[in-house]
Amino acid sequence: MQQHVVKMASFLMLVVFLILAVFLVAQAAVTVDCGKNSMSVRWTEANSQVDPSLLRMGGCSPTQVSVKPQGSEAIFYAEFGDCDIRRMVTINELIYETEITSTMLSKAQPIYYPVTCKYERPEDWALPLYDPLLFHIHGQGDLTFRMALMKDDFSGVATTTTFSLGTTIPIAASVDQKTHQPLILLLDECVASTTPELGPDSQIYPLITNMGCLVDSKKTNSRFLPRNQLSEIRLSLQAFKFAIGQDVYLHCMLVAWDPRDLGRSKKACQYDRNSSRWVLFDDPSQSSLCSCCDTNCQGRKKREITADSFTSTSVLGPLVIIEN
């Protein structure tokens, strides 16, 4: 009976959240202009209930905002591949989608509005080709994210993409922060898949989940390696049994964050099988932040929810894992 009451309460909270979100969207006008390789989105609201600078499209801030007596406006512009814009491929369509959301607003009312651009799939369209060794992507602002397969000693980019089962797969990721304050680079999520595009039917093998938990370290020798600097992270994966002999792609979400403000939703945790516990890689004295890795990690501090973070999605592959 008690479990039924808890479930009912959770359901009612979700309903209230959605009602509030729909109410706020109803007060605003949203127009989407789908370009050839980009989208432009305009949010306008007559009653100025929302501070437009607090709106986000995917992970991006508005490119232009204005607040006037007659109302507020936020304009977003993003090329496909930026701002966490996801691509879905169907038999007949190419679909690019993201959403407009809000950080913590003054009246604590949530915003959630899906944004979609749909195109007829060209007859000659094919999956994009990835550099199997190096993936380079521009992130938000003037940050640049990089991710690559490396040689065993990390002296340079790998010369092969074929790995024997049980051997190590060295990976390095970095962020060039230029004029930004010092940032720490984290891997929020990584999965292996047999496809370069993730979709509802994609087969996946989880490597890092739950906002920075290296779940593969609980059953293999996969681990984070010591940093040379905060803006770089190194990962040694043990070649796994998933999709033996097939093309495998590694899909990872990179996050650049304030190193003074690690939390349950911004962390790098790995499992220490000697002590049978999760350990915070960058500061073992704060390993309590990793105690949620076997359950569900949610940010507790207000800053974890409201502060800006800089994110980028990267894909490495195809690589191939073979039997010895």
UniProtKB/TrEMBL annotation:
Pfam families: Zona_pellucida (PF00100). One of its GO terms (biological process) is egg coat formation. PROSITE patterns: ZP_2. InterPro entries: ZP-C, ZP-C_dom, ZP_dom. It comes from the Eukaryota. GO terms for cellular component: extracellular matrix. Keywords: Disulfide bond, Signal. One of its GO terms (molecular function) is acrosin binding. This is ZP domain-containing protein. The lineage of its organism: Eukaryota, Metazoa, Chordata, Craniata, Vertebrata.
